[in-house]
């Protein structure tokens, strides 16, 4: 008679666990029967690639091979080893499924006949399916294994984010073939689901107890050595799994994913192989599972695969066409969400969307940025202008202080644009197909009642090969089981369509930036990278401007022009690559920054040549007679307003520019020049029209010279027509006031006080600066060289000072004021050799303001100066671009900079973050010599009225003086575009992507106002069309999102709402 036993939940659950354990009782449990037969590989040949190189297949297979073996060690870190496997499969295995088992504790890739088959990654994926049904004709197989001596997350020495261990070796622990029993595998999947249901449903869940008893009955029925019992075991399981959910159950849209950082704890070159390993694994899985969908972002990574693995790329194209391998994001890389310029953001989408359209005929509708460190308030407008109305991330779940209140919501940007946003509530983009994750997804979802579905992204990332068969099998079985959420294999588009069609009306709205309360040290880390990024952003736009102007004049003159489209695109893509969200923020290993700086050098070298060539061609075409060429000094102004500024004359300028008057120790005022010691450089005041040029020498009106004097109180007094200031011996600003006012900006403290803080985060070294760093403030107050006057006017007055920061570091500044300039510059050189220190400069202002205004892409926003709420004090370090301003009703102070992004403001103290010194993952981050400039601009009225926005552009984009051989008949002065409204900034002029008959101009409303601007051009355009940022013309009548535009040559009239971006196509 059968004995019924009262079940103890704990012991029964542990019984289930041991029955499927890969560790315990494998001689008698079910797991031990998964591979009933195996044989070790004997024909292993090994080839080490010299010099840690990464070589293509055809080179590797022709290398010199020696004996390889299980137990052998291979290295060091970043090296590559190839193995040839000559496999003889036993004939008695005919008809069986046969796997290759390989575990080198590192990333690896399986090759056959020159084609990538699948990636391997140690314990997470150590098998490759040779065949699912072995035939007699394929008993002998030859494979190659490309072994990379690194794991998925790099090789941090002693910790994940530590600098890589350069001498690590990897042991080949497994290399054999085995028969795989799929009947056993299917049973294991069922047992695992039942076990997880018991473990993760609430303690007293009725459904959990049903699962417990079902699994127990299955074990009682199952004889692991007698497969004839498996049918009855499956019948018991099916009685449980046949019970379905109700209609009200939450639905999870499951999409395969493999988030691959384009560089991070490994270099760019390794990412190329990570893509091949992961995507080959995914398409192989798709061959067997037609239900599987996979979302994949970053056009750059697709381009790498296309260039290096063309056969794999063709397989991917097949599944893209089927709608299962889904390109998402629409960007060139998953860029940083805060630091790139607005134009760089648009180029990410422009080149990304163009790639996906050209290669796959696909237009991405979801912006996919799951892992960056905050999201600009202008992104919704930029997304919509690039044909994207949906947004996905999960990074906001990392908030340190406040839990973000939504998972599915409308995100409204700076201009009022709205996109549908979703944060997968499982708080991960690398789920594993586990019941615990499904339950967390539902329980964590914050928009219950408003929406009844969410996304679930599953797969190993960063080279872990993406979705696995275990994950897919599990999720397919979990499709509709009573007691659990419903699971639907779907694309991101299907999820968003469901929300838009059925559940969007009741969603909440979030307005403004998505500020991540973590990783705010990334606004400052790796300062040279950020400096080069800013420089190159301006350089490429200026190069496009000069060549576009040249193109139009050539067409006007019916002369062919070779516009450098391909080279400019190449340079832009290098810049965009370096804006990846672990490169530009400063959170990668040292190898990455060596590559990044090499790319920046390439951009600067080629970009400058393109810029100068464009100017040469532009001015040559402008000339009335091209027979007489002479050496000519020209000043080029790439900005859309007239500028009157001091420039340094070129050292090779002709004698006409070096008249005797210019060689005096202090030049005569009428010449508007100045010789400055000690180098003897010649300064000149020039007046250049908007987006145009002027030829030197220029006839100038008299000026009011800059005044500078050191008085008995040891203060140095400096003044021009816009401001006056007093500087103490340590370079601190004791007094500063705008002209025609006696209000001292620094009546409550010393401006330009250099301060240093301890900077020891909790874990994420390069990423984080913690709030408690503010408690460790120390002033830098030891002088090496006290303030001394080095330039005395009439065009520029300057003071030089040097300070000792520590025994290892020092700072040197030249504080200067130019004639006709409303700001005082602090040109800074820092020799920086610190350990976990944070260098800032602070400005305790006299104004009382509840908010500070910070520039961001195509606009600005305000943040609090108080810590009233947790949302306020969590913003103790924030991101801004070229300027920040603190103002009362009728006066204020703006801080301008040429390469910095970190700011902080509390009460009346503003700080600009200068340098950090983390030691992981790059132990030499920011060590060395740095050059940067910031400036102080006191003003009356609002910052808009004072011209802060324009002056910040001027600081970042100086007038360019070039010495060219040009026709003698060129115009002495010319403007090609001008804007009549200072609220509107015309920032971009480029050739259209399609053909030479169109020019794209892009501008934005910068004040935060509803206004109208007239853009006047001297170029022969015939038509003007409103277009989106992808340069697609918007049909008339469909321009609700876009500004209204009218055209009557030479004037283009554009109507703006606050912070609106306008892109126009001008036909030549």
UniProtKB/TrEMBL annotation:
GO molecular function, a single term: carbohydrate binding
Domain Glycoside hydrolase family 38 central, first and last residues per copy: 517-600
EC number, UniProt record: 3.2.1.24
Signal peptide: none
CDD domains associated with the record: GH38N_AMII_Man2C1 (cd10813)
SUPFAM superfamilies: Families 57/38 glycoside transferase middle domain (SSF88688), Galactose mutarotase-like (SSF74650), Glycoside hydrolase/deacetylase (SSF88713)
Keyword set, alphabetical order: Glycosidase, Hydrolase, Metal-binding
Catalysed reactions listed for this entry: Hydrolysis of terminal, non-reducing alpha-D-mannose residues in alpha-D-mannosides
Pfam families: Alpha-mann_mid, Ams1-like_1st, Glyco_hydro38C2, Glyco_hydro_38C, Glyco_hydro_38N
GO process annotations (BP): mannose metabolic process; oligosaccharide catabolic process
Similarity remark: Belongs to the glycosyl hydrolase 38 family.
Stated name of the protein: alpha-mannosidase
Gene: LOC106156481
